[in-house]
Amino acid sequence: MKQLISDFKIFYQKALKEVEDNTFYINNIKRKYIHSIKVLRIGNKIRNNTKILYDNSNNKLETIAIKALLFHDVGRFNEAKIRYQQEKLQKKQIKASSLKINHGNLGVKLLKNNPKYNDIRILFAIKYHGQMIEKAIKSKEYQTAKTLKLKKEMLNILYLVRDADKLENLYRIKNQNNLTKDVFYKQLSKEAKIAPPSPKVLKQLFAKKVVKFSTVYSYADRLIMVLSWFFDINYKESYQIIKENNYKQYLLDELEIYNQDKSLQLKIQKLLKKY
């Protein structure tokens, strides 16, 4: 474990040097490093309490799961560097939505030529942890996996990373008011910060789908997008962590501040309380 964290620190320290003295990106990279360590801890808690993931006889699979958890966001370091370089070139801040960068793909590029990390179960989790799950299942990597056992392990580790990643984000949203501190919120117009939920976002929620970020307009939409993550939680232990920390009710209470339609709020509450 210590060696893996040391390896991860190499990527982290290199990224810090590449953004020079830009405080915004230095802090961004530091947050991603801390986030990754916490995702590893949460993921290990899920794994230790989930029979399908915990196998004393298979140390290799345990190591693969740990690597996938720790390195899931390693592409974020390169993403910060790319954004920093573009802003330096254009001499202005780039809107969060205007520069499309897939940090999962960046992570795969960083690791695929390294024998310690070039395992389809690790790379699959890194590439698709932030994508719609349907895309992962339809992907060439999953469809061409050689055995059913390998497919199961690919999905189980991907689900583990997705759950741990969401749970760490939920912790920061609740305990650090993270949604009002990120770039997306700061770049919202005054109207969008107080606007009610959008029809496109509500349609996805009531279809029990994870809301696509590209359809989010208002802060209320963003809260609904986070609530929709509960449709994509995979392990019983993950649900237990959500319950223990009261994440669902916290988000519903926050949404009620921006959603003045009491009837709609009640429908959303009823829908989410089933999950």
Can you put this structure into words, describing what you see?
- The structure is a single chain.
- With 275 residues, this protein is mostly helical.
- The protein has helices at 2-18, 23-48, 59-71, 75-90, 103-111, 120-128, 133-138, 140-143, 148-175, 183-186, 190-194, 199-206, 219-228, 236-245, 247-258, 262-273.
- The protein is globular, with a radius of gyration of 19 Å.
End-to-end CA span: 34 Å
Largest sheet: none
Shape, please? Answer: globular
**Average of pLDDT:** 91
Give the structural class: mainly alpha
Question: Number of helix segments?
Answer: 16
Strand content: under 5%
Helix content: 55-70%
What's the count of strands? 0
- Low-pLDDT segments, ≥5 res: none
String of helices and strands:
HHHHHHHHHHHHHHHH
Radius of gyration: 19 Å
As an assembly, this protein is single chain
Compose a concise summary of this entry.
This protein is an all-alpha fold and 275 residues long. The chain has helices spanning 2-18, 23-48, 59-71, 75-90, 103-111, 120-128, 133-138, 140-143, 148-175, 183-186, 190-194, 199-206, 219-228, 236-245, 247-258, 262-273.
